[in-house]
Hints:
Blueprint: E1 2-5, E2 21-24, H1 26-45, E3 50-57, E4 70-77, E5 82-88
Antiparallel strand pairs: 1-2, 3-4, 4-5
Amino acid sequence: xxxxxxxxxxxxxxxxxxxxxxxxxxxxxxxxxxxxxxxxxxxxxxxxxxxxxxxxxxxxxxxxxxxxxxxxxxxxxxxxxxxxxxxxxxxx
Length: 92
């Protein structure tokens, strides 16, 4: 498992707050989430205001401790750009 941040540190997310952490496999964090975060960073770096939302998604059949089946990511920019993606938890 990989300690993933829902809101990346570069966007002001905490490295310490438990509510900003999610357990994902490394590949989900360093590929899918990173690609999406880079889109958001490009908007911010271009001077746009960005609304950014990241949510954990759990199965109704999650075990204890629950591990999300993935993360839903959304952003809307003052430039008019927007995107959404679901980053599934790949197998380890």
